[in-house]
Structure formats: C-alpha cells, structure tokens
UniProtKB/TrEMBL annotation:
<dbReference type="Pfam" id="PF00583">
    <property type="entry name" value="Acetyltransf_1"/>
</dbReference>
<dbReference type="InterPro" id="IPR000182">
    <property type="entry name" value="GNAT_dom"/>
</dbReference>
<dbReference type="InterPro" id="IPR050832">
    <property type="entry name" value="Bact_Acetyltransf"/>
</dbReference>
<protein>
    <recommendedName>
        <fullName>N-acetyltransferase domain-containing protein</fullName>
    </recommendedName>
</protein>
<keyword id="KW-0808">Transferase</keyword>
<feature type="domain" description="N-acetyltransferase">
    <location>
        <begin position="1"/>
        <end position="147"/>
    </location>
</feature>
<keyword id="KW-0012">Acyltransferase</keyword>
<dbReference type="InterPro" id="IPR016181">
    <property type="entry name" value="Acyl_CoA_acyltransferase"/>
</dbReference>
Amino acid sequence: MQIRSYTDADREGVLSLLRLNTPAYFSESEEDDLIEYLNHHSQHYFVMESEGALLGCGGFNLFDEEELARISWDIIHPGHQGKGLGRLLTQYRIARIREYPHIKTIVVRTSQLVYKFYERLGFDLKEVTKDYWAEGFDLYYMDGPAEKWDVSR
C-alpha cells in the first residue's frame, strides 16, 4: 500500500472512483465539482494505490487566515471499503496537516452517509444543512482541534 501525491495522470482513475461511488455516496452533479477541484485546488491531494491499482484518494486544503485545514474529496473504491483504508488515508492527511503549526482546526464537510466514520475518528458534529450537496445529500459540518489527533503512532 502506497500513499503518494496526486498527479494529472491520476485524473481518470480518481474520476472512476467517484463514478463507482455514485449514487451511493455522491450525487452525479458532484463530478463537475471534483473536476474543478482537481484542476485548481489539488496541491494537497493524494492517491492510495496497491500494485498499480487506485484504491482511494483524498486531500486537504489550507485556509491560513482562519488557521484551519479542510479534509476534502475522500473516495475509497467500493470493493475496499470497511478495510481501514479510509482511516489510514485520513490519518496520513492529518499528519501532513500537523506539519503546519499555525493550523488550529481541522474541518470535515461530509454527508449523512459517512459522518459516523469521521465521528469515530474524533471529529465533532457542529451543523447539518439539508440537501446541501444535492437533493438527498445533506451537509454534515464537523471539526476538531488539530492537536487533538496524535498521529505519531
């Protein structure tokens, strides 16, 4: 298992992962948003692969003035969900975020479909907005202080 920085060569593989998770976890309308993200905001985006197969991806974005980082676009291949890959990828990104000492808060914006995953990782639910991402896909806004997570283990 390897986690590495996203490159443009990974684009179709990432979009394929999104499509494999649509409509179970994403709305069809979100594909354009992911393309925009990959085109303009992927400087801290990562892919997880094993033996050349893309198994997952996810990133984060820094908001320096607000002293926060936002976990973004987590996608795990449906055949590999529930095996700890999402946890591993999230812990990897938290470790990268902690390299920026000015970041005080880590935010996750997710849906009702997976917010329990982030809750188990220690994120606190702050707000819910119905049909935010698309009809039937609510926003679950979660966060926690960056120092909360000990990723040295």
